[in-house]
Design brief:
CATH superfamily: Vaccinia Virus protein VP39
Number of domains: 1
Keywords: Methyltransferase, Transferase
Oligomer: single chain
EC number: 2.1.1.-
Radius of gyration: 18 Å
Strand content: 15-25%
Number of strands: 7
Pfam families: Methyltransf_11 (PF08241)
Distance between the termini: 32 Å
Helix content: 25-40%
CATH class: Alpha Beta
GO biological process, one term: methylation
Protein name: Class I SAM-dependent methyltransferase
């Protein structure tokens, strides 16, 4: 598991920085209803995306459980960040027009409690916007990385907590219906085979959680040509659900 307190200062630069944040915020904006006046960004991290969601007449609040992340978020959003867990939000029921969850559901053993908490704080007609299918974001285009990793990603698929069909079913059980979808690029985040191998060796890749799978994936990636050539940037997916 990533130590977000330890990684806070280097987090943005290692994940696409401002260009990726702007792309993410623009995509979220496409799915927010024009009348949204209160937006809650759950697991807001450093607030790099959260701050870009501010508009005249709109209140934006960031929540995260990492003190290291919140220190940075507080610099971007003075007085508008709270420490809290996504399963126990420090927000009244039915008090916000939109909940945003970017790059968080894939980290959870079960997304259902977080979705339920998001539903609790949404007003009637409110919208939940979340990233989905993050494990496949780097493999939406055909290529050698997609082919080399396909067996292990396919085997891991039943365990993926942010898979669109699973999130849609869990949302439906809470009375949340689909309300749109979009994608955005992860600028500068296309990894080379060698970079993927480094992430696997550090235990950062969900579909390589067990040693046997990790070893096989490492061998397959090591056999690819152009070990240091970055492949295409990932394409992240956002889905919206309306209360």
């Amino acid at each position: 598991m990533i130590d977000y307190d330890a990684e806070a200062r280097a987090y943005d630069a290692s994940r696409g920085g401002e260009p990726r944040a702007r792309a993410a915020a623009e995509a979220v904006e496409r799915l927010l209803p024009p009348q949204a006046r209160t937006v809650l960004d759950v697991a807001c991290g450093t607030g790099i995306v959260t701050a870009l969601l501010r508009r005249p007449g709109r209140a934006v609040l960031g929540v995260d459980r990492s003190p290291g992340m919140l220190r940075l978020a507080g610099q971007r959003l003075p007085g508008a960040v709270l420490r809290g867990d996504a399963t126990r939000l420090p927000v009244r029921a039915g008090s916000v027009d939109a909940v945003v969850l970017v790059w968080s559901l894939h980290l959870l053993p079960d997304a259902a409690p977080v979705l339920a908490e998001a539903r609790r704080v949404l007003r009637p007609g409110g919208v939940l916007v979340t990233t989905v299918d993050k494990n496949d974001a780097s493999f939406t285009e055909p290529g050698d990385l997609a082919e080399a990793t396909r067996p292990w990603r396919r085997r891991h698929a039943p365990q993926v907590t942010d898979r669109l069909d699973r999130v849609t079913a869990q949302a439906a059980a809470l009375g949340l219906r689909p309300a749109g979808a979009t994608t955005f690029p992860g600028h500068g985040q296309g990894r080379s085979p060698r970079a993927w191998r480094t992430q696997i060796e550090r235990g950062r890749i969900g579909w390589c959680a067990d040693p046997a799978t990790a070893g096989a994936a490492l061998r397959a990636l090591a056999a690819l040509p152009d070990q240091d050539a970055p492949r295409p940037d990932p394409r992240y997916r956002l889905a919206a659900f309306r209360a």
